[in-house]
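Agenda item 2: 2-acetamido-2-deoxy-beta-D-glucopyranose complex prediction
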Amino acid sequence: MSFLSLRLLFFLSLLTLSLSQSQPLRGVFIDCGATVETVSDGRRWQPDAGFVSAGTPRNLTTPGLVPVLSTVRSFPLGVGVRRKFCYVVPVYRTGKYMVRTTYFYGAINGPVSPPVFDQIVDGTFWSVVNTTEDYARVMSSYYEGIFVATGKTMSVCVAANTYTDSDPFISALEFVLLGDSLYNSTDFGTHGLSLVARHSFGYSGPLIRYPDDQFDRFWEPFGESSPTTASNTNVSVSGFWNLPPLKTFERELTIGQPAPMELQWPLASLPNSTYYIALYFADNRNSSSGSSRVFNISINNVTYYSNLNVTPEGVVVFSKRWPLAGLTKITLTPASGSDIAPLINGGEVFDLLLLGGRTVTRDVIALETVRNSFQSYPLDWNGDPCLPRQYSWTGVTCSEGPRIRVIALNLSSMGLSGSLSPNIANLTALSSIWLGNNSLSGSIPDLSSLKLLEILHLEDNQFSGEIPQSLADIGTLREIFLQNNNLTGQVPNSLLGKPGLNLKTLPGNHFSSPPPS
Ligand SMILES: *[C@@H]1O[C@H](CO)[C@@H](O)[C@H](O)[C@H]1NC(C)=O
Ligand SMILES: *[C@@H]1O[C@H](CO)[C@@H](O)[C@H](O)[C@H]1NC(C)=O
Ligand SMILES: *[C@@H]1O[C@H](CO)[C@@H](O)[C@H](O)[C@H]1NC(C)=O
Ligand SMILES: *[C@@H]1O[C@H](CO)[C@@H](O)[C@H](O)[C@H]1NC(C)=O
Ligand SMILES: *[C@@H]1O[C@H](CO)[C@@H](O)[C@H](O)[C@H]1NC(C)=O
Ligand SMILES: *[C@@H]1O[C@H](CO)[C@@H](O)[C@H](O)[C@H]1NC(C)=O
Ligand SMILES: *[C@@H]1O[C@H](CO)[C@@H](O)[C@H](O)[C@H]1NC(C)=O
Ligand SMILES: *[C@@H]1O[C@H](CO)[C@@H](O)[C@H](O)[C@H]1NC(C)=O
Ligand SMILES: *[C@@H]1O[C@H](CO)[C@@H](O)[C@H](O)[C@H]1NC(C)=O
Ligand SMILES: *[C@@H]1O[C@H](CO)[C@@H](O)[C@H](O)[C@H]1NC(C)=O
Ligand SMILES: *[C@@H]1O[C@H](CO)[C@@H](O)[C@H](O)[C@H]1NC(C)=O
Ligand SMILES: *[C@@H]1O[C@H](CO)[C@@H](O)[C@H](O)[C@H]1NC(C)=O
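Presented output:
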């Protein structure tokens, strides 16, 4: 899977930009583990404390690092549990974002190889993060994906899996707002795009990025040894919905003669999956030249496009779903009779990622409000509560099926203090609540809207006030444990007389007239 781990030259040639001439990047740039803001790469990197509640900021000792890579946030590995740690980032609802995560290990876990772990976006498993190879070459790794925000926040999480053997970490997290037309053939309601490769062919200079790419997508050089030529074209990228940088059209890869040109690209062997592929071309001759540059494109011997007429204005050929597996061979064959060589300027390949969905928003908001009224809560209570399935929040059980609801809450003996928010009553799919043996105080909220509630355990806490009468309205209740709190008043008769209810209120409360035991 290491093909996803593209390499970023990490002793970065800092960009010397004349920012006034380019559109500023719109987005959120988070320097994980940093305590102060820094300005580099033409953007303002914020410290991460406002976006994440778990983990520890760490400073790396590797000399010569750019500021963004010199700090990381590191997250504690749970013993034998899969657990996620999420950044929650404010976004524009329906905004299309390029999300980039950057990792540079810097031996923060001691002299062991970098941990291998997962990354998650909202409720979707995004990819495995394996920086081992890059780290051995003293390089950082980055991952890029394109996702549309369905709410006012998006979460990106790193997560310990069974193969994770030391604390996961992250160096940087970026969200760049993309223009509407970018990659708009993809149905972002059901899919995300996870970058496999993006190259500028025939080019061997430094990474092409902002401000050449107005969204700071990274176009890696793919110079190779084949002959390449400089271009005389005058490309207008506004004709391309994906808005590639002009710079990719300044040089191209060609074999210089009218013969089939074969290109093994992307370089890595790909898992069997469906991919989005976009290939960019522009004729490098002055437009006045007579003959046209026409060729066929095939991928692994399957026709991808026939009789492509490459003009100096440039042309893109994209496929929104193309199956690939293993190594990929792209062949450009000049049209019969043509004496003009084929060429290629740029290419992008993304894995189409089936989105995992989201927990019903009303439940998410309710659960977040409940969480916020606790004074301490489990480290992984951020991001989507239920998804991905194997990464639901500690103590949270969810329903199957298309509408994902929270059906049980078990935070027994978790050392919780604070109060129980009345918003718990908005989790209307709950069938059991286990909060016994904590230090929760305040009153017991009205739970009568929980029409499916069967089990309520609030024993061994410091709840005070009276037992709500309305508990008797919940027809499904069969077990209520309230002993060892600080409850007063009387136990409602409606509860005492309820058939089939196992009610425990003693010892350890202060009722004015003790219930018959
Ligand atoms: C990291 O370095 C910064 C600046 O030198 C310092 O303020 C911060 O306390 C350090 N953090 C840790 C965790 O050592
Ligand atoms: C991580 O990558 C290294 C180098 O490619 C590989 O040897 C190792 O098996 C990978 N680890 C996991 C858990 O996939
Ligand atoms: C993508 O954007 C372009 C430019 O705005 C527009 O012409 C085209 O119809 C859009 N395609 C889709 C599928 O929305
Ligand atoms: C490119 O085209 C623009 C307008 O179409 C023109 O102003 C400019 O001079 C051209 N540049 C070159 C190098 O031909
Ligand atoms: C890829 O997977 C599909 C279905 O899962 C299968 O039909 C196809 O043969 C596989 N292709 C390769 C090259 O393994
Ligand atoms: C293309 O035009 C430029 C000037 O616009 C000229 O310098 C160059 O020699 C021309 N190239 C070819 C291949 O005709
Ligand atoms: C593609 O076609 C060439 C020649 O037609 C053949 O030698 C080669 O085995 C084919 N490759 C695949 C993957 O089918
Ligand atoms: C290009 O593709 C067209 C249509 O598939 C085909 O008729 C033609 O023979 C191909 N040309 C070459 C040179 O392969
Ligand atoms: C609640 O979680 C604890 C572990 O935290 C477990 O021991 C207990 O069995 C769970 N109770 C229920 C009813 O699932
Ligand atoms: C109550 O919770 C504490 C941790 O908060 C734990 O040490 C203790 O064993 C628990 N008691 C019972 C009876 O479960
Ligand atoms: C529940 O959700 C509604 C909106 O759906 C909100 O108005 C209310 O404040 C929430 N909390 C409670 C306790 O009902
Ligand atoms: C129990 O409640 C009484 C009054 O309702 C209060 O004075 C006392 O501090 C509470 N005790 C605890 C342990 O919360």
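Discussion summary: Residues 361-373 form the longest helix (13 residues).
Owner for follow-up: CH.
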